[in-house]
Amino acid sequence: MTVAVSAAIFGCAAPPLPDIVWPEPPDEPKIKYVRAYKGSADFSGGGVATSILLGGETGMALKKPMGVFVGNDSKIYVTDTANSDVFIFDPKNSKMNTLANMGAKLFYKPIGVTADTDGRIFVTDSQVDKVTVLSSSAKILAYLQPDEPFKQPSGIIADSINRRLYVTDTHTHNIKVFDLDTLKNTGTIGKRGKEEGEFNFPSHLGIDTKGNLYVVDTMNGRVQIFDKTGKFIKAFGQFGDAPGMFARPKGIGVDSEGHIYVVDAAFNNVQIFNDEGQVLLAFASYGSDRSQMILPAGLAVDSQDYIYVVDSWNRRINMFEYVGAKSKARAAQAPVKK
């Protein structure tokens, strides 16, 4: 019996795993790998041991995760196209659930997910061209009704401060804007093209503390930034394989210090840019070991600057920490171990 199995079954303390950080020593670390989320076994007692002994996973587990969002309550929402469901990880209460398990068995190919400060959950379904609005208890509240029908809605993000909801309408090549209170379509951003403010199959969305909108302009190989009124601010990136370039850009997020994180499914990593679009660092690599990823997709940054990346092929969410001001403040407040 291996040490790992023995520790899982009998409770023996396993030796701590070494930290994985970027950049590597002797440079000062900026990103640190924290953990991975896979399913209900992450929180159920004895789940790991049972999984090992039976040669498989127990309970509900991710199969093909796609999008991720983290709410102010630290709940992690994950769309899963193979399960046709949305998983909700609740680390604070050590539990996990899904919208289908809560009664909302209505999705076919959920792609994007977001939530607002009122507790509502918004899910895009690209197979049936719908965006569903649900309560925190999974009750259907509404379906978004755009002025022009959706054609493969994908990315979605709520701006609870400025009361806006943005939806990427991928095959219409624009971003549809909704009033977060009335849920009415108040306008669109962009059209198909290569110029500033135009898109070619846009996908993922992000938002910063100022209300600026970040759009992954997938087939133009770039990221575009707009202010809260929809006015174009800047764009950065181009196709290529050098640092700062993109091959298959996917998820995007912004931390409290203005750093922009962009997933690339071809590079199997995440690149970090400053607010001028200059690349600062890349982290993660191809593989199935701790911190590695294969075909990453969505990305989210929470209010404490933890970064969550959808590792689709490995059926998990990888969690990283930006070692910045908030991280150092948490470390300073942590109790001293005696």
Brief synopsis:
By secondary structure, this protein is mainly β. It has helices at residues 3-10, 47-54, 325-333, and strands spanning 21-22, 31-37, 65-70, 76-80, 85-90, 95-98, 110-115, 121-125, 130-134, 140-143, 153-159, 164-169, 174-179, 185-189, 202-207, 213-217, 222-226, 232-236, 249-254, 260-264, 269-273, 279-283, 296-301, 306-311, 316-322. The chain starts with a helix and ends in a 5-residue tail after the last helix.
Could you walk me through the main structural features you see in this protein, from its secondary elements to its overall organization?
There is one protein chain. The protein is 7% helix and 40% strand. The protein is built from three helices and 25 strands. The protein has a five-stranded antiparallel beta sheet, with no helix packed on it. It has a four-stranded antiparallel beta sheet with strand order 3-4-5-6, with no helix packed on it. Strands 7-8-9-10 form a four-stranded antiparallel beta sheet, with no helix packed on it. The two termini are 33 Å apart.
